[in-house]
Structure to design on (230 residues):
């Protein structure tokens, strides 16, 4: 049962344009969402996160939007740069006061930025 | 500041053998989680260690076991290896206590090939 889904295996975007990566989830208990970026031969690198009490979080060129009613989140990258070419993973967790609960990942979207 | 380190980088084993993978967490982190990433999939949670005890476990058989040492480093052991255990094994570290967020920092992984 895939609780976190990234339905687009790949995405190509022109340099300078906006990249939009999408993620859907099925578990209503998820209350914290994260995006990770992964280059070949490296571990995933944390990009940005959002708590379920918010619907938007921004960090420089990266913005994550959360639509709880649709169980959908998206990552916007503006403007896209060649160094953004990587595999992007959406992840979710069920929070607790203790923090740092296990992450459930999607299958990833390979983003290619075309110069 | 050293990040998460893992050893070895690559490993080739035969079916039925046993393997031990090692992880040193990022400085200041006290919690270690292990993930398995099969080809074309997102990382899947195996288990998490805090205060030298297994705190959470994913849907993996008992052939997968672990240990955390007083210096917070950790080992992942897999017994009776199967061909399906071939994957990238990722270690992630984080702070366990407090609402520091759910950001887990990943190491580069150990690529295990079972023949």
């Amino acid at each position: 049962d895939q609780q976190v889904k990234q339905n687009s295996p790949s995405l190509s975007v022109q340099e300078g344009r906006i990249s939009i990566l999408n993620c859907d989830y099925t578990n209503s208990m998820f209350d914290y969402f994260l995006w990770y970026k992964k280059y070949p031969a490296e571990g995933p690198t944390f990009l940005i996160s959002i708590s379920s009490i918010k619907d938007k979080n921004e960090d420089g060129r990266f913005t994550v939007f959360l639509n709880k009613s649709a169980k959908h989140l998206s990552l916007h990258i503006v403007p896209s740069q060649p160094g953004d070419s990587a595999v992007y993973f959406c992840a979710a967790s069920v929070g607790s006061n203790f923090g740092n609960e296990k992450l459930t990942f999607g299958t990833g979207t390979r983003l290619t930025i075309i110069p | 500041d050293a990040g998460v380190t893992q050893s070895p980088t690559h490993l080739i084993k035969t079916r039925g053998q046993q393997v031990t993978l090692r992880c040193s967490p990022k400085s200041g982190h006290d919690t270690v989680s292990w993930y398995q990433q099969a080809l074309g999939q997102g990382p899947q949670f195996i288990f998490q260690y805090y205060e030298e005890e297994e705190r959470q476990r994913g849907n993996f058989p008992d052939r997968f076991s672990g240990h955390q040492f007083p210096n917070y480093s950790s080992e992942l052991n897999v017994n009776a290896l199967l061909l399906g255990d071939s994957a990238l094994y990722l270690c992630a570290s984080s702070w366990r206590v407090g609402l520091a967020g759910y950001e887990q920092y990943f190491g580069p992984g150990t690529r295990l090939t079972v023949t």
